[in-house]
Design goal:
single chain, 608 residues, mainly beta, Lipocalin, 6-stranded mixed beta sheet, 4-stranded antiparallel beta sheet
Amino acid sequence: MKPWRLLAVAAMLALVAGCSEKKAETATLGDADLEPPMWHFEPIDHRQGDMTLTDVWGRSDGAVFVVGWYGTIFSNRVTAANPEGLWTRMASGTNEHLTAIWGVENGGRFRQRGVDGEMFAVGWHGTILHYHPNPDAKPTPVPEDGVWQLVSGPGHELVPKTKVDPYCPDFDGDGIADDGGGAPTGGGGDGWWSPDQTCRSGTAASCDDNCRSTANGPQRPIRDVGGGTGGLPDGCLNPADGDGPYPASGATTRNQVDADGDGIGRDCDDDDQAASTPAPFRPALLDVWASAQNGQLVVVAVGEQGALITYAGADAAPATPAPTTVVTDPAAWFAQDGLSYRFDNDCSGATPVGTVCGGSGRLPPSCPAQCHPYRTNCDCPVDQGQCCDAGAPTGCENNSCTPVVNACGTPTAGSCSAICPGCFRRLDTTLRSVTSDGTNVIAVGAAGTVVKLSIDPATPATLLATWTRPDCTPMPKPLDERPVLTRVAMAGSVAHVVGAAGVFARVDASAASCGLTTLDASCGAPQAFMADIFPLSGSRAYAIGDAGVFIIINGQLGSACTPNRTPVELVATDLLQNLNGLWVTRVQGTERVWFVGATGVLVRAGYY
């Protein structure tokens, strides 16, 4: 056959094949050749490098923003300069590893499209970034002119504060209140201890204790050095066995000793020869959440050792009159170096001393920390200087001070609480994630930590209220083993939580107490380190984790799990990387699931 005829035959065969393929695509449901819907996973070549990607956030128009190590931020947003929606890196202004991103769609306040609003990113060493959509105040939308700005980071640290418990106003019992008045900056008396308001150069009035963890004021506590001789147990103070006050060192013991005038007291200063500053506040921040309503922003970030950072104020849009502080001003942000909380079934302050609260086994608020730890053993006989003995001397150097009203109930109650020793408990464990429904803020972290705060976005002060910690009795499995909780996300008033070893739980944020339900491991959850979750409703969610794990959680928990039906579906992804971040976008009825993770992996998934 001649060559041109061979070509003609081939063309006809190709045409027939094309028609057959077209026919198969339009087959009816009864056609056996129709492929049923299934999950498809499409790796994205974003060309931004293979560094670890840590989090992803998406807008309602489908634009996606990704953060990762070395200050990486990139997006596929469509702009006049990027009409094809190619993945483009954004200048972040930092090389710190970024861990989380969140945005709000308030672009209309900035003469931009509504979706082109403010965003926030957080990362290592206390890094907080704010995205301004229109810093030049141009009258027409130019989204590519937006810039990321540094709020805090190395060299620009926030000043942390510590909430002072009214039942324990003098933590070390040295006679100087933790929150004593606020010189030299003029603040203070506000219920917070702050290192920039501490007593300097021997002053002890109108200032915060410059060494709140160790006594260095006028009431130097008694030392227990006798080893429990004289018929008294060790821990009781007995002059007969050598117990006594700390050695006097002159008149300087009568004030807040601060030889170099740096605001750090003698027993807390690692260098008392030259002026120094407190250690910089640089916790690794691991998650951030924000909301915007009527020109007001609420931002919450969490991190290492219970660090909590909040902003409540005006957004960055031009305003008349201009706000007194702006979003990028560190003074507008409030940093807590360790979140303080109470259990949700703690006794109230009105509970009579000595009365145990029903169900919790706790006593009403009482705190021996106002007295030195060596003076807190309530089993000692009277007149031995312990905290609970209202008639005992205070333990001054010359033993001539009058008795102090201790924090163990009333001065005559003589009853310390060994069950509630902290009053405010202070988190020293890492908080890894935070979310909110606008009324309740939920944060989770290491050691099975779940804490909650009820807020009013219109009242900034509610962000500074005391948090509560659900205390179920007993704590449901597997939370009773205190696993690492890695991520929390809200759907309505239901918070979905994931963690190590396949842990999954739901928290009813509207519940007065506890409000926890959990997923038993026998219900099909993989024993993987789960890193993120995206709830679709109160009963359905996607979750991702190590080694490419992707699961769908559907339905009720607990009794809903049977041998024939489990609420967990493990979906094969063929991914080997550890996945860190998850987001779902929905545009014109099309749902796309986005994963980011180790070695720069970015995946778009869909069920069709």
